[in-house]
Structures are given as C-alpha cells and as structure tokens.
UniProtKB/TrEMBL annotation:
Name of protein: Isoprenyl transferase
Gene3D superfamilies xref list: Decaprenyl diphosphate synthase-like
This enzyme's EC code(s): 2.5.1.-
Domain of life of the organism encoding this protein: Bacteria
Keyword Methyltransferase attached: no
UniProt GO MF annotations: ditrans,polycis-polyprenyl diphosphate synthase [(2E,6E)-farnesyl diphosphate specific] activity; magnesium ion binding; Z-farnesyl diphosphate synthase activity
UniProt gene name: uppS
Residues that bind substrate: 34-38, 51, 79-81, 85, 202, 208-210
Amino acid sequence: MSMRDLVYKLYERRLERTLSSDQIPRHVGIIVDGNRRWARAMGLRDVSRGHQKGADKISELLVWCREAGVEYVTLWLLSTDNLSRDKAELGPLLQVIENLVQDLVDQGWHINPMGSLDLLPDHTARVLKHAKETTSHRPGLIVNVAVGYGGRREIADAVRSLLQEHASKGASIEDLVEVLDVEHIAEHLYTRGLPDPDLVIRTSGEQRLSGFLLWQSAHSEFYFCEAYWPDFRRVDFLRALRSYAARHRRYGS
C-alpha cells in the first residue's frame, strides 16, 4: 500500500467515526456523470471505455451504501436525451448497461428498473424487466436503475397513468379534478412506494439536476463532487454523507 493510499484509509476511518446511524440518508440518488470526459482526459479515443470504467464503479458504490446503512439507491445511468446520441456511441453504452445490470443481478442485489422502457431497444428492455422479475424477492438494499429516464417524462407518464386509471373506473375528467392532489400523482411515479431521496449526489463538477427526480427531490439535500464518476472514491462518498449529516433539513421552509 502506497503512502497516499494509507493516508486516504486513515482519513476514511476518521470520516466514518464522525457519522452515526441516525444521520445516514435512507435514500441516495446519484447522477453518475463524467464518464466521457474521464475517457478524454485519459487520452482514450473510445469513450465506451469511460462508460465501462464508470460501470465498474457501481458495485463498489453499492457496497459502500450497504455498509453505511443506506436502504435505497437510485442510479441515473441513461437519460431520455442520451437516446438521441450517435449510434456509434449509444450501442456500446447500452451494452455496458445491459452487462452491468446482469452483473448486479448475479451479485445478489435487488434491482428495480425505472424509466420509459418503451423507448429502449427491445433487448435492453428485456434485460431490465428480467432483472426486476428475478430479484424482486431479495431483501436488503434496493437499487433503482434509471435507464431511459427523464424527470419531465416521468411526470407526464404519471399523469397519463392516473388518467387511464380513472377512465377505467368510468370516472370523468371533472370527477378527477375534484379529488386530484399531489399524492395521487406521486402514486403513479416510477418510484411509487419508495421514500423520496434524502440526498442527491452528482459527480463531474456540474451543479444542476438536469431533470433527475424532479418531483421527488423537492426536499432533498444536494452534494456536488468535482471528481468524474470513474474517479469517485469511498472517501468522496463519506464526505457526501458527512455534508448531509451536518445540515439542518427544513423541508422547504
């Protein structure tokens, strides 16, 4: 172990000692950003190598979350905007995501896909649906994988689903207007049944949500990390938890 690694290990332990179980967020959302820029910074022409390096980081992160006591993790792996990328990049990226999801299934995680699966290629959608079907009974940390996800699209899908549900019961639009409230919409989001994220982390230095969990993050705390996602370390994760623990949550007030 190098001197630098030893220093980081000591620092990690110091950070861990500052955290108590009642300060750990139940639900952490993560925008895994910076894979392409990492590849370019490393002088790699093939940006898919950056996506693969980022995918390799996911398993480490989930172990860190489980060790810390996090109960839910939502990973934004592919946005609806990403689906318009050049096919030469999108194809390998989808393959990386498919392999990642299968690896997470094999590792024993509880996988819950979220997003507009109808926008994805058939094979990718089948991999995600199979992951959900085969892991839904597993206890422990729930891993939401957001693929083909967009916050505005999610809200539109929720409203569409709500209208369809009421129409199937023979209710009119006027009937729905009389009873509609925020909870009705929340019950039709991709994350229905799950708590809203307490903490949202974004890597790569960008300080915006870009549409990630628009509805659910109304009262979330945010942590922006300069490191590209492939370079995200356990010490960075612990710093995010420390930052969260130090805040006084006002829930919009």
